[in-house]
Amino acid sequence: MRLDPAVAAVRLAVRRALEDLGGSDPVPVLVACSGGADSVALLAATVFEARRTHWHVVGVTVDHGLQPGSADRAAAVVAQMAALGAHQSVAVQVEVRRSGQGLEAAAREARYAALAEVAQRERSDVVLLGHTLDDQAETVLLGLARGSGGRSLAGMRRHSPPFRRPLLDVTRAQTEAACRSERIDFWSDPHNEDPRFTRARVRHAVLPVLERELGPGVSAALARTADQLREDADALDTEADRALCEARTPTGLVIAALEQLPTAVRRRVLRRAAVEAGSPPSELFRVHVLAIDELVHSYSGQRWVELPGHVRVIREHGELRCHRTGGTGPQPPVAG
User: Fold this and answer.
1) Which three-class secondary structure state does DSSP give residue 154?
2) Nearest CA-CA partner of 8 in 131, 219, 181
3) Which of 172, 272, 292, 299 has its CA 20 to 30 A from that of 72?
4) Nearest residue to 320 (alpha-carbon basis) of 272, 268, 281, 273
């Protein structure tokens, strides 16, 4: 019987993403699964590929508690993961705390933290996520619209330990086709259709207009843009990491050291300092980074810069310092 091309594409993507996992000892591989087509197809493919390897497949679903009946939905996903052949199926319930973030960003943060915790408990270095080419295109488009810099345009990383995204070259249509071919039921999350959420509007309103007006292939072109920019972004990020270490003191960042940096590197350093201080990356836009940068190169007595996540950046005693506000007291997380 001829293998469906969509099934083959998903399996090949998993095989390539995990080709470095060798040896004769069992290797725990976690697969994040929401019950949607992307993650269910990913789990099924991982289980199939595990038959010829030493992988121990652990399916993990996260219950965010944001919808009525979410616990029942999580239980159904656990049962489905077991039926698909996962060696182990786990459900994790999380509390989504917004803390000045949007709901999408807060849920994502809670989900990633829970997955990382399960990976640590299972002694796994690999957590597979079901993001597809379409998700990558949406991420790039959102980054472009927000003006949040080259790293956003570079999209999601294929490998950011412990997380791996095998399906970034696979479309959402292919994962759905793979599920249908293998007669696997999948769930459609109502949040993915809810126009209150930015990504849902991009998916169902913005991208279709671009495809209609500019011609087919916009999503693939956006994903290619991410690939092309990622190497440059990685090089600049490496330089920014080095510069951050050199400028850091126990209380902040030395202004004189920051002033000597090329603009592209300096602004990356400032963004890292803000994120370390607690400003959510998904809420920290270019306008915020530019405001911090003015404290370095265009200072004229500004008092401070307020950032998402209740973070305040001030210039004092020749340093740039970050403090948490909202009653938590000052903290200097830009220090090592």
Assistant:
1) coil
2) 181
3) 172
4) 273
Q: Which two tokens stand for residue 125?
A: 């270095």
Say whether the peptide bond before residue 162 is cis (omega within 30 degrees of 0).
yes
Q: What is the pLDDT of residue 100?
A: 60
As a whole number of Å, the end-to-end CA separation of the chain is 59
Chain centroid offset of residue 274 CA: 18
**CA dist., res. 191 & res. 322, Å (int):** 35
What pLDDT, on a 0 to 100 scale, did the predictor assign at position 332? 39
Domains of the chain are 5-208 (3.40.50.620), 248-324 (3.30.465.60)
Quote the CA–CA distance of 131 and 113 in Å, as a whole number: 17
Lowest-confidence pick of 57-61, 195-199, 247-251, 331-335? 331-335
Give the relative orientation of helices 133-146 and 218-247 as an angle to the nearest 10 degrees. 60
Side chain identity, residue 51? R
Other C-beta atoms closer than 10 Å to the C-beta of 204 total 13
Q: Tell me how crowded residue 58 is: count the other CB atoms within 10 A of its CB.
A: 23
Q: Return all residues near 246 (Cβ < 8 A) that are at least 6 apart.
A: 257
**What pLDDT, on the 0 to 100 scale, is given for residue 96?**
87
Q: Hey, which residues does 93 pair with through a beta bridge?
A: 63
Give the pLDDT of residue 233.
86
Cα separations in angstroms, 31 against 18, 75, 77:
12, 16, 12
* Contact yes or no for 34/42 (Cβ under 8 A): no
Instruction: Give the tokens for residue 278.
Output: 């607690």
Reading the block at residue 261, the tokens are: 């940096």
Is the pLDDT reported for residue 143 higher than 90?
A: no
What residues pair up with 29 in beta bridges, in sequence order?
Answer: 57
CB neighbours of 132 closer than 8 A, spacing ≥ 6? 38, 167, 168, 170, 171, 172, 174, 175
> Are the C-beta atoms of residues 311 and 274 closer than 8 Å to each other?
yes
